[in-house]
Amino acid sequence: MTYQPKSDFLNVVLQRGYYEDCSNLEELDNSLKKGIAPAYIGFDATAQSLHIGSLIQIMMLRWLQKTGHKPIVLMGGGTTKVGDPSFRADERPLLSNEKIASNIAGIKEVFSKYLIFGDQSTDAIMVNNAEWLDNLNYIAFLREIGKYFSVNRMLSFESVKSRLDREQSLSFLEFNYMILQAYDFLELAKRYSCKFQMGGSDQWGNILNGVDLTRRILSKQVFALTSPLLTTSDGKKMGKTQSGAVWLNSDLYSPYDFWQYWRNTSDHDVGKFLKLFTELDITECDRLGSLAGSEINEAKIVLANEVTTLAHGHMAAQRAMTTAQEVFVAGSHSQGLPTLDLTSDNLIDGRFPLIKAMVELGLVSSGKEARRNMLGNGVRVNDRVETNTARFLTVEELKREVKISVGKKRHAIAKLSQ
So where are the chain's domains? Predict the structure, then answer.
């Protein structure tokens, strides 16, 4: 990219690696220079929390606000009832209204850490597309909006085409998703003078639909801006580990585990992740990312501290680092480790299965994985290798707390509550 933007926001986007594509980069740049430009990203409520796969979009909204513009967080209370088919092999399960509302409540917690909400001109707002989607008149909607969509063009989008090429079913319900997403853009342009929509590159076609629809109906120029779909240097998609998703809500994924995730970043990804997920100066990101040998571990600690501070606060980041030092350097127990609190009602004849404890603590994803690790000398109980797959933790052990380790980097505590 050789274009040199004049606006602070696009400078950040290009310099830090958030840029994949834009419908008209120069015109968007000019719009950003003229004054406050509201922009939005949509998040469907398919789970209780967002995971780190959404962190690029969250950071883009944060930088948008820091550079003097207005972030709009659009919760998909309406579109979640349909389900985004983009690049999926099958239809998403349909959620109840109560489950969607519960998920939205959980997701709201994430944004309170990254954005300033309020009534000022650049304060973020959170809106729910159920406000305008739930009560649409179907016939009126088809006549007013449906006439602008070509089925031929919709079928050519890669997100749909890949599904059909594999001869996998695409329901009419899902096929409507891209029309509803485009309608969201139109509504936000009407209600909040929204200038552009951001999202991952897999949403490019859907966002362009909204740009085109808004231009046709409101005769207004709006823009699409996408970020790359991030993978680690070994080609894995960001967001999940062997034991499950890396959630942004602390009740689903502890700050300690979150800190450890970033501390265990591959050497090749450190510089890139510092630019994307922290607010450190670009020069410092480059310097830290260029370290080699044992020095790169210091850069990883900086990365873990900075990302965890944004997600969970300074104190949580400090506690996680202290816990890691105690566990790995001193080899001691620590209150910061993930903990399984058991009661006498959980015990079977005064014992609890070690494998079940490992699964419930999230150290492994299944009993099968637990057994494989045990037979490979990869499990330790109180720092002693344990290979007995029928091992039970006794009530005497649990009263003193039991430290369970899988590999060198996954540790947790099981204990009996008094």
Answer: 8-227, 254-330, 339-416
Residue 136: φ, ψ to 5°: -65, 140
pLDDT exceeds cutoff 60 at 332? no
CATH code of 8-227, in short, is: 3.40.50.620
> In whole angstroms, how far apart are CA 9 and each of 3, 38, 122, 248, 272?
14, 12, 13, 25, 18
**pLDDT per residue as tens digits for the range 247-263:** 999 989 889 889 989 99
- The partner residues of 341 in beta bridges, in order of sequence, read 415
CB 368 within 8 A of CB 389: no
Euclidean distance between CA atoms 158 and 22, whole angstroms: 18
Q: 254-330: CATH homologous superfamily?
A: Tyrosyl-Transfer RNA Synthetase (1.10.240.10)
Taking only the tens place, the pLDDT of each residue in 18-41 is 999 999 999 999 999 999 999 999
* CATH architecture of the region 339-416: Roll (3.10)
Beta-bridge partners for 162 = none
